[in-house]
Amino acid sequence: MKFSCNGTDLANATNIVSKALAANKNIPILEGIRMDAHGDTLTLSAYNQELYIQKTIHADVLAEGNLVVNGKMLNDYANKLCFLDNIEIEKQLNNKLSFTFNKSSSEINYFDIQNFPVLGEYNCTDYVKIKESDLKELFECCIFCAAVNDSRAILKSCKIEIINDVCEAVCLDGYRVGIARKKPEGFGGNFKAIILGKIIGDITKILSDSDEIVTIQRAGNTVIFDIGHTKVRTTTVEGDFYKYETSLPKNIRTEVIVNKDEFEQCLNRAGIISREHFYNNIIITVDNNVINVFSESEKGKVNENVDCKSNGEEVKIGLNNKFLQEALSRIKEDYVKIQIESATRPILVSRLEGDEYRCIILPVRIV
């Protein structure tokens, strides 16, 4: 095997596939990155029994072949060479892979590809086609609501489903729910998949803001994300996802429209005090076109007012400040809408128009 490639392309590719390197040393082959040089491409692959990532880049292949190298070492080394326009890589004798550039050279040990899994080919009837930028926003608007340390896999997961010709992604951790919706470019079958949130987080980091089409396919308990020159395979989480619809406010008594930046700045200042509480709680009072934000601890007190447009009854409700800030941060518009049913029911944070993004937050008890 002998080929040459661009240093930046190689570093970007190893950075992407490294997200699927195995963390433990029980299966040494899974600590490696597989390299396949064929035609005019170099394909890198990594697998950790939960996630398989494959990335293809352009290469000038002089001799075709394949092998496996230690993934962390290859990734670290490739990032040190990212400034080079051209690197020549060749399979040598005695299990050595050489890197030649300018007037320098170095070597890394390699292994045979025996027992390294392959991505496989899939042609599924259950699929979704969606713009890459839309998929990235879809995940970013809900993944922050997935639990991290909970023992229940469902609470650490993201549900992706086609509902009424719309692609919907939902995450929840028992205290809040993130709901995002986007119109797909196309779909087929009855697409629905539940995937671990940490994997969705890794996929989100791979996605760009382009208008290229991403195809998501499901075959049994396997889901494939085809992102052009990058392909990701993972398995689904089994079980029934919680029906978040029961948490949506039904009898809205108070609706607030407030400037996002002004409200966020107020919450940031309140956070200096609220973070002293176990639940990071603040008390919000809405009355007569004013939102009052109050938090008090042994170390201090915050009591601020923000002008708003409010309709309905006066309301006083306790909320987790961090949850509210994270919900607001996903909205890019100048104003946000908050709907409140009562002091003991979840609130709904959303954009002024449409249902592309909604966040449900449970209240905390006011002491």
What does this structure look like?
The chain is an alpha+beta fold. It folds into three domains: 2-111, DNA Polymerase III, Chain A, domain 2, CATH 3.10.150; 126-244, DNA Polymerase III, subunit A, domain 2 (DNA Polymerase III, Chain A, domain 2, Roll); 248-361, Roll (DNA Polymerase III, Chain A, domain 2). Helices cover 17% and strands 44% of the residues. It has helices spanning 7-17, 71-80, 132-140, 197-206, 260-274, 321-329; strands at 2-5, 32-38, 41-47, 51-58, 60-63, 65-70, 87-91, 96-101, 104-111, 126-131, 157-163, 166-172, 176-182, 186-188, 192-196, 213-219, 222-227, 230-235, 254-259, 281-287, 290-297, 300-307, 309-312, 315-320, 335-340, 347-350, 357-361. The protein has a 14-stranded antiparallel sheet with strand order 5-1-7-8-9-6-2-3-4-18-17-16-10-14. A nine-stranded antiparallel sheet has the order 15-11-12-13-27-26-25-19-23. Strands 22-21-20-24 form a four-stranded antiparallel sheet. Helix 1 runs antiparallel to helix 2 (71-80). The protein is elongated, with a radius of gyration of 25 Å. The protein starts with a strand and ends in a 6-residue tail after the last strand. The model has no long low-confidence stretch (mean pLDDT 94).
